[in-house]
User: Which sequence fits this backbone?
C-alpha cells in the first residue's frame, strides 16, 4: 500500500474547485461493460428495510414501495428517498411539498407488494397524522417537507426535512437478494 505524503496545499491543484456551500465533483464516465442485471444482483446483497412513501394528490393517496431510503442529517433532521424517473409517483413528488414514509413491519408484505404494483389482497389501511396519510401498523411514520430535488442518472433524490415522527417496537420487513426477509432475533 502506498501513502501520499504530500501536504493538503500540495494536493490542491489535484482537487476540483469547491463551491463554499456545496461540494461539486466533476462528472465521471462509467464503464459500459457493467451489466445491469449483474449490477442489480451485486447491490441486492445489501439488506434493506422497506418503506412505502405516500403522497396525497387531488384527494387521493398515491404511494410507492421504496427501499432506497436513508437518513442524511440529524441537525436538521433530513432523510432522502430515491425514485425512478419513470415511476408514476415521481410526477406526484415533483409537484408536492411533502411526502410520508411508513417503515413496514414483517407482516406488511401485502402493503409492499401493493405499492410495488404487484397483486395484493384487500385494501391499504391508512392512519392520518397531522392531516397526512400513512400506512396503519407501520414501525415508524415520518412526514417530510421536500427541501431539495436532485436528478441523478435515471432517478431523482428527494431530500425531506422531518416535521413529524412516531415509532414503535416490532420486527421490520427486510429485502435481500430480490426477496423478502425477516430478522431471526430481535429484542
Assistant:
Amino acid at each position: 500500500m502506498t501513502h501520499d505524503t504530500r501536504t493538503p496545499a500540495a494536493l490542491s491543484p489535484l482537487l476540483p474547485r469547491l463551491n463554499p456551500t456545496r461540494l461539486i465533483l466533476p462528472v465521471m464516465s462509467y464503464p459500459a461493460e457493467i451489466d445491469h442485471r449483474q449490477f442489480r444482483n451485486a447491490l441486492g446483497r445489501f439488506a434493506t428495510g422497506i418503506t412505502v412513501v405516500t403522497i396525497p394528490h387531488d384527494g387521493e393517496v398515491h404511494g410507492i414501495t421504496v427501499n432506497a431510503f436513508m437518513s442524511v442529517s440529524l441537525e436538521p433532521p433530513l432523510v432522502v428517498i430515491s425514485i425512478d424517473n419513470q415511476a408514476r409517483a415521481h410526477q406526484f413528488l415533483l409537484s408536492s411539498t411533502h411526502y410520508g414514509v411508513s417503515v413496514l413491519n414483517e407482516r406488511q408484505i401485502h402493503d409492499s407488494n401493493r405499492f410495488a404494483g404487484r397483486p395484493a389482497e384487500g385494501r391499504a389501511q391508512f392512519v392520518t397524522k397531522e392531516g397526512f396519510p400513512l400506512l396503519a401498523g407501520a414501525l415508524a411514520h415520518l412526514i417530510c417537507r421536500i427541501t431539495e430535488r436532485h436528478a441523478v442518472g435515471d432517478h431523482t433524490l428527494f431530500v425531506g426535512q422531518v416535521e413529524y415522527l412516531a415509532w414503535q417496537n416490532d420486527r421490520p420487513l427486510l429485502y435481500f437478494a430480490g426477496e423478502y426477509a425477516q430478522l431471526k432475533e430481535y429484542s
User: Anything to note?
Assistant: Residues 1-20 have pLDDT under 50 and may be disordered. The first helix runs from residue 8 to 11. The radius of gyration is 19 Å.
